[in-house]
Amino acid sequence: MKKIVYTVAIGGLPWFKYTLPTIEAYADRIGAKFWRAVAPTVFPDKPHLANFEKLLFFQPFFGEQFDRICIIDADCLIRNDCPDLFEVVPENKIGMLNELEYSPANKEEFAAKIMRCQKFYGLTPAKPDFTHFGYYNTGVMVIPQSKRSYFLPPVRPFPFWCYDQDVINMRLRMQTPGEFIGFPAMFDLADRLNRMAWPGFVATCPWEDAYIRHYATISDVDRIVAMEKDLTEWRERGLA
């Protein structure tokens, strides 16, 4: 199986010096190619929309050269004993963390985001039913080539925060705009493999036990302090 670990790290954000070495080392350890997107953002005046690049740059990797891709955000630190996500996630499934499972209080907010996305793309907003399908975090994803159509970029970027996450959650529910063809086969990652740090995240895994620590929503200054502290802890434990 040909596999690649991909991250979007545009510009010179100060925490890249902490996160990128751990992501690259992880790719090397599991025998995957490592690729970092460094091209200018589609919105040069809105750097917070850099995650739009996720839906552009990884498409070429789904040709004959690679069978599966693992996308890891550049605000994640990975321990040196993290399991191979390509082995954790079944080969024919999409692996992501179901954020709704850990943030049930945000159900209405997640629904509103998907409906806002539907409206932006000219669809009739329909409140999503979360009974059988969740709301997924895009910070860590494992995607097989057979499911690539759910991740193709739309005709125009969605100019709001968490662009990629809102669009992908809309697409997972509606592969072709206006046409429901059934939910894709998902594998819900445990929070130990994408441990969010924000207060509303009701974790089952203690922060110190996480294989992948995801620092989204933490301010820039606090993020750097937290990463330095966590890397020091890992080195003391032989995990970095």
Features:
three-stranded mixed β-sheet, 240 residues, alpha/beta, Spore Coat Polysaccharide Biosynthesis Protein SpsA, Chain A, single chain, six-stranded mixed β-sheet, 9 strands, 17% strand, 7 helices
Describe this structure in words.
The chain has helices spanning 16-29, 54-57, 85-88, 99-102, 107-120, 163-173, 220-237, and strands at residues 3-8, 33-37, 68-72, 76-78, 94-98, 136-144, 186-188, 195-196, 212-214. It is α/β, with parallel strands linked by helices. Helix 5 (107-120) crosses helix 6. The radius of gyration is 17 Å and the shape is globular.
Number of helices: 7
Total count of strands: 9
CATH homology superfamily name:
Spore Coat Polysaccharide Biosynthesis Protein SpsA, Chain A
| Residue-averaged pLDDT | 87
- The name of the CATH architecture is Alpha-Beta Complex
Q: Output the CATH class name.
A: Alpha Beta
Write down the secondary-structure element order. EHEHEEHEHHEHEEEH
State the low-pLDDT regions, or none. Answer: none
